[in-house]
Write a structure and sequence with these properties.
Elements: H1 4-13, E1 22-23, E2 26-27, H2 30-38, H3 40-53, H4 55-58, E3 64-65, H5 66-73, H6 77-88, E4 94-97, E5 100-102, H7 105-108, H8 119-125, H9 128-133, H10 137-143, H11 147-152, H12 156-162, H13 164-188, E6 196-200, H14 206-214, E7 219-224, H15 226-229, H16 232-238, E8 245-249, E9 263-267, H17 275-289, E10 295-301, H18 312-323, H19 330-339, E11 342-344, E12 353-360
Parallel strand pairs: 6-7, 6-9, 7-8, 9-10
Antiparallel strand pairs: 1-2, 3-5, 4-5, 10-12, 11-12
Active site: 271
GO molecular function: O-methyltransferase activity; protein dimerization activity
Domain O-methyltransferase dimerisation: 36-108
Length: 362
């Protein structure tokens, strides 16, 4: 039997969640905080609406009266003022004088023109389909199946095939994530001296292009859904690597993966899928590697243990409800990899985005 004193100590040792709200008079009282948490859809709607309107872009040059902002973004000034007044409560924009608003550091992330913009990800996370999917959280918990499927009558991936606008929003968000995380991965991991890199599920190729820019003698193969692969050429050309990339459209469950590469990359792919499907993807990569001695680099998160603060524990709910996938801790990663014929070459860091370097077991 566990020691109840230890349990109490562990609870008391849990660090304050970084999302605590503080007023000029001190922390928000517990019951009000609980009600705010229960009404989080307000925050989602406000952030999504301001991102969609482009309010941060309208303030890039400095503070402006709300009527000027409204005219610039095409909305009603009175209603916009009410939304901005709410946004100020959580540090998103600042009212510098009566009805005159300015950017905050938090709001900077909603600008289109900053390299670490999260606007596209906000538009995806706050979209009507994502919001409705979370009404199926209880279904996911009870059945183990995605709430998205239950609410919308088809899977997330089927929806992307059928809804061109949803696919555009998703692919834009994924490119934005590649832009932000790509620099993190390149700074934290020694990718060696790759000669031919296969980026499996690599979207429009932003991260592959970053690798090829770092390694000018290397060549690449970009593999993703046909409708995504068809849009990759412009980005690869813009980044000056189109002459070194072979673009292949296909399904990594049914179509042959590229062979003859010394480095295979799966970046934020496996967390989209439950263990059985993720294992099938890994086995397809293992088949493509054969006995060539190529390595596999998985660019994802390793969930931190117990009470440690870790954004992966938030993202894990998206995976559960929307896609049916999951974030994994180190034990889960080792089990998944072993089942597909791989082993880790090192002990990856937990609680952050990391690179799991793997080699085949022979």
């Amino acid at each position: 039997m566990s020691d109840p004193t230890a349990a109490v100590t562990a609870r008391e040792a849990v660090p304050a969640v970084p999302l605590d709200l503080v007023t000029p008079d001190g922390p928000v009282p517990p019951r009000l905080k609980l009600m705010l948490l229960a009404n989080g859809q307000r925050f989602t709607a406000v952030v999504h609406t301001l991102a969609d309107l482009g309010v941060a872009d309208a303030l890039a040059a400095g503070p402006r009266p709300v009527r000027e902002i409204a005219e610039a973004v095409g909305c009603d000034a009175t209603q916009l003022y009410r939304v901005l007044r709410f946004a100020v409560l959580v540090g998103l924009f600042r009212e510098v004088e009566q009805e005159v608003f300015a950017l905050t550091e938090l709001a900077e992330g909603l600008r289109r023109d900053v390299p670490d913009s999260v606007r596209d990800a906000v538009l995806l996370d706050g979209s009507e389909k994502f919001n409705r999917a979370f009404t199926g959280l209880g279904h996911s918990v009870r059945t183990g199946r995605p709430g998205f499927d239950h609410v919308h009558g088809r899977s997330f991936w089927q929806d992307l095939e059928a809804d061109e606008e949803a696919a555009r929003v998703f692919d834009a968000a994924m490119t934005g994530i590649s832009r932000r995380l790509g620099a993190v991965y390149l700074a934290r991991h020694d990718f060696g001296r790759p000669e031919r890199i296969a980026d499996v599920g690599g979207g429009r190729g932003y991260f592959l292009a970053s690798l090829l820019q770092r390694y000018p003698d290397a060549r690449g193969v970009l593999f993703d859904r046909p409708q995504v692969a068809a849009t990759a050429e412009a980005l690869l050309k813009e980044r000056g690597v189109d002459d070194r990339v072979e673009v292949v459209g296909g399904d990594f469950f049914t179509d042959a993966l590229p062979t003859g590469c010394d480095t295979y990359v799966l970046k934020t792919v496996l967390h989209d899928w439950p263990d059985d499907a993720a294992g099938r993807i890994l086995r397809r990569v293992r088949e493509a590697i054969g006995d060539s001695g190529a390595r596999l680099l998985i660019l994802e998160q390793v969930v931190a243990p117990m009470n440690a603060w870790d954004p992966a524990k938030l993202l894990d709910l998206d995976m559960m409800v929307v896609m049916g996938g999951r974030e994994r801790n180190l034990t889960e990663w080792r089990r998944l990899l072993a089942g597909a014929g791989f082993r880790l070459t090192h002990e990856p860091d937990a609680g952050d985005w990391t690179v799991l370097e793997c080699v085949p077991e022979y």
